[in-house]
Specification:
Blueprint lengths: L1 E10 L2 E7 L4 E5 L6 H13 L18 E9 L5 E9 L4 E5 L2 E3 L2 H7 L2 E4 L5 H4 L2 H15 L3 H19 L6 H38 L6 E6 L8 H7 L1 H7 L10 E6 L2 E2 L6 H22 L5 E4 L2 H4 L2 H14 L3 E5 L13 E7 L2 E4 L3
Parallel strand pairs: 3-13, 3-14, 8-12, 12-13
Antiparallel strand pairs: 1-2, 1-4, 4-5, 5-6, 6-7, 9-10, 10-11, 14-15
């Protein structure tokens, strides 16, 4: 699958951009602040409905504009064409379109356009606690387990209800038991799907990591509670403790995907440079597993490759991506920083003050 054409209007410095990018590797070269990361942001909006740089739409919409528009054409290996579009307004309105029809959920976009995002601050996957690693796991589960998304939504709803009950001092024992039971039941469904998926994918992930990282990395999964005990019982036992801290301390929302090097948590062992390479390797390994499990290969978005990896690591990383056959978009201050050997079709685009144009090679 490839993104063949991208149209962007009023997204940050990108006022009116229409660019063909039907290549295996697309290099976006330009000075800092030129708008090259905004091109990646536009692709991310197309595949998720949201920005990876800002939570609020106010920061994303170009100044003096009421809203932004992103459109794209996806082409399958068979030649089948899919048209997608996202519109967002300053007033909070949002519209998703696929082949001329409105769709309600951003999850529809995500299934059509799976994305792997590699950012300069990627090492935070190791250093900032379990939340980022859990999101990575949820991303994989969303794509490989068809029932995971609905199960996840049901669990989050039950979790919100229990957390609200923790702040209600007049809650009866019957109400407590009801919400603990609901949360435990949905947690069981979620955990069953995770366990089934990880039994297959963890060995595949470790094998992929061996070819990308020089470190002896192992992956493990911690579910967020002691599964030898019934979660419903534990939720009732810890009610007073959860009231004191204001949230539920046990459950799948506390799960973690643990990376270990020499048997120890990776964040306590690796150097900053090793950590950057390890995080990139993990993300590529997840993309490889996804490519083997679902029909649509993900697109890879790499922001500021040079700040993420040294020259040797960049070469190893881009060679690994070339072997996977995934369309990849890379930003860099200079196209010379991107290793293009091994790629069949390469497009180099120059970005300057929000304008995107092909570069002569």
């Amino acid at each position: 699958m490839r993104l063949r054409e991208l149209i962007v209007r009023n997204l940050r410095v990108l006022e009116d951009v229409q660019v063909a990018m039907d290549a295996d590797l697309v290099v976006l070269a330009g000075a800092n602040g030129s708008g090259k990361t905004s091109v990646l942001e536009a692709i991310h909006l197309l595949g998720t409905g949201r920005s990876f740089r800002s939570r609020g739409v106010q920061d994303v919409v170009r100044r003096d504009s009421d809203g932004l528009l992103v459109r794209g054409q996806l082409v399958e290996g068979s030649g089948q064409l899919t048209r997608m579009g996202v519109e967002r307004s300053r007033r909070g309105g949002v519209r998703f379109r696929v082949d001329g029809q409105d769709v309600r959920a951003a999850s529809t976009l995500a299934r059509l356009l799976p994305l792997v995002l590699v950012r300069p601050d990627g090492q935070r996957l190791l250093t900032d606690g379990a939340e980022g690693r859990r999101r990575l796991l949820d991303w994989l589960m969303f794509h490989v387990e068809p029932g995971y998304h609905d199960a996840h939504l049901r669990y989050r709803r039950a979790l919100r209800q229990r957390n609200a009950m923790l702040r209600e001092p007049r809650a009866s024992q019957q109400e407590r038991e009801a919400w603990c039971a609901e949360m435990a039941q949905t947690a069981g469904v979620l955990e069953g799907l995770r366990k089934r998926c990880l039994e297959i994918t963890l060995p595949m992930l470790e094998e992929a990591l061996m070819g990308l990282s020089p470190l002896p990395v192992t992956l493990g999964y911690e579910p967020g509670w002691d599964t030898s005990a019934a979660l419903q019982d534990r939720l009732l036992e810890t009610w007073d403790r959860d009231v004191a801290r204001g949230y539920s301390g046990l459950g799948p929302h506390r799960a973690d995907l643990v990376l270990r090097v020499h048997g120890r948590p990776a964040q306590h062992v690796v150097s900053r440079g090793e950590g950057k390479l390890l995080v990139v390797a993990v993300q590529v390994a997840f993309a490889r597993v996804l490519a083997e499990r679902v029909p649509r290969r993900p697109l890879v978005l790499v922001d500021e490759l040079a700040s993420e990896l040294d020259a040797e690591s960049r070469s190893r990383f881009t060679a690994a991506l070339a072997d996977l056959g995934m369309q990849t978009f890379v930003t860099a201050v200079s196209a010379e920083l991107v290793q293009t050997a091994g790629w069949e079709r390469v497009a180099v685009l120059h970005v300057d003050q929000g304008k995107v144009s092909p570069m002569l090679q």
